[in-house]
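Technical annex B. To support the medicinal chemistry partners, we prepared a structural model of the target in complex with zinc ion, based solely on the information shown next.
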Amino acid sequence: MQKLILGSGKPLIGIVGCLHGNETIGSEIIEILKNINPRAGSLILVIANEEAMKQDKRFIGTDLNRCFPGNENGNHEERLAAAISKELGKCDYVIDIHSTTADTESFIVATKKEALKLAQLVPINKIVFMEPVIANGKSLIDHVRCGISIEFSNNVKTETAKEIILKCLQNIGIPESSAPLAEKEIYSVYDILKKGNIHPALANFQQTTLEGDTFYPVLFGEKEYKDILCLKAKKVSTQPSLQFQNT
Ligand SMILES: [Zn+2]
């Protein structure tokens, strides 16, 4: 794990890349962010799984983003998760950077309703809310105060991705009352569709009816999903501030 702290004071924002070693956009963005000077507050930049990066693999022993809060006496990823939890547990906000091999728009992932406030500040239009039963409570963002993952599209340019992260950092500095609420589409993942005998051609975020169930596919075509065809989501709202207020 590589860690760098920039600035001092509140809010403390953690930015994590390469929880999955072969998703290099995270480390590319962090390399660029190393040179910025936080106007207010401070940043912890973390490049997570360097071993897996060297081998161009998602992970060495276990998927790191499925073993939080980690175990100091566990395998490589479990120990890493424990170390990362320690660093990021004190952050006010955490932004965790991923990329997908699926043919999809970039989207934001949240597992807690509190995190939707942070998701509002990211200039990406789609938010995918993972129900606890799907997220299984073992991802990084389940174990920080207010965290989101960003799943960048496979064809996003590093420059564009960097601008999105910078814009979000800027927005965090805006007092909440004056931050404009961008309109977002929110999807809630309620089930997983396993690969079976049928091989339907699905399109991510395009309403689909399959075996009597109508849903929006998410992460269809992700090569790292060995048994999963896609996640099944419902469209919840385009007004998250109303939908999720005080719940
Ligand atoms: Zn990932």
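Notes passed to the chemistry partners:
The first helix runs from residue 25 to 33.
The domain at 2-178 is CATH 3.40.630.10 (Aminopeptidase).
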